[in-house]
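question for whoever is on the cluster today: can someone run the full assembly for these? two chains, 457 residues total. i dont have access anymore since they changed the login thing
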Amino acid sequence: MKSQVTLNSICFPSDNVVAREIEGEIIIVPLTAGVGDADDELYTLNDIGREIWSKLDGKRTLGQVAEELAGEYSAPEGDINRDVLGFAAELVRRGMLAVKDCAS
Amino acid sequence: MEKGDGTHPVKGSLEGLAGDVPHYTTPGGVLYLSNSGQLELLRGVHERGVPLRTMVRGSSMYPFIRNNDVVTIAPLNGRLPRIGEVVACTHPVTGRLVIHRVIKKNAHGWLLQGDNCPRADGEVTGDQIIGRVIRIERGGREVRLGLGAERKLIALLNRGPGLFFIKQIWYFPRRAAGFILRCLQALPLYRLLGRYLARSITVVPAGENDRALIQRRFHLFSPFPIPSPGAEVFYWVARRGSKVIGFVQLVRQHKDHRHWPGYWLFSLQVWPPYRGLGAGEKLTKRVIEEAQKRGAAELLLLVNEDNRPAIRLYQKLGFVRAVLPALEPVLEAEKKRTGRRRIVMQKKIEAAR
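^ ran it for u. tokens below:
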């Protein structure tokens, strides 16, 4: 599985995590050696992370996600692209997101 | 053992997602989940057919599962629970997530009871049982006692008073020593000696290690109540040499907070062997001093109305009983739930010169 992400990449939650929205938080529990470890490793996302995560449905490219966010937040496209790519790359590195490249 | 009592934290990490852009990262921290939130998390993990490893709170399963132990809860995956197994389930009366032992199988379900509870929880059906505990860890090591072959004997003893009596005998020396110490600590001569020894007690701001120690000892993942947005929390510890022997918090809640606006002294604790030596007074005075420095007009606190030693201490330092109308219904409801009534005490603070 490729770890490098680009705006053409499609990202989606990995099979190696359990992610749930609980009490307003996106909680991500990694599965380590077949066990959901909520003691040593448990992640939550801040507001921006939640927004990006909610759009990673395995259908949109990161570029499309960035475009939507740029429209919603009226922010410079370059900043949004950087945020989305940085966020996705970090989560891919931690095994929380899987990635595939869009051919077109 | 209740896995989550009201709103209290699940130990975890608000991990810093150290990407190139730091503004969406939050390094470190503790995640607060209510009991129902933890129940949902457990169900979510079990839907994937995998166990959940998590820290638990409470003493209802003491001594086999203790506060801050880490347990691994595996899904049942269709098999029936067995006598003696420790299971996670929704309490038949409260609906809250609990981790207790199966002590009996009845016609309509299973009878559960905490190993440290005097009465059974009641009967639960199969769909209320979410998973079973397959591993207990304490201090980084696996603990097998309570999950092995002895589990059926423990369940059998819990059906009657057997386990209760065994525990009474086991803990009698410790309880007797504690009683004798409390009697000594109430003696004027002891307290006089304590004033001499108290010169070696210092009060300092609590560092990260101190706070971690307090959390492990008193399960204080946060001050009570949970600080509202805009609240500030300050922590101090009392030390005798390098040893931490006490702890206190000053919480400044936002002025628009519904029940707890203003400056509050919370969580004053002195370890039992070190009581009567003046540590509590030093910690309280430090909080008063800090509140004064910050321009507080008054300092508030809550204390159990039957905690006479604490009330005497606060009165000595100028606190008087007060009534906050917005808080009274909360305290009355708490009394119905816990059987103990807390009262508000207030101290007017003069502006610092």
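summary bc i know u wont read the tokens: Chain A has one domain: 9-99. Helices of chain A lie at 47-55, 62-73, 77-93.
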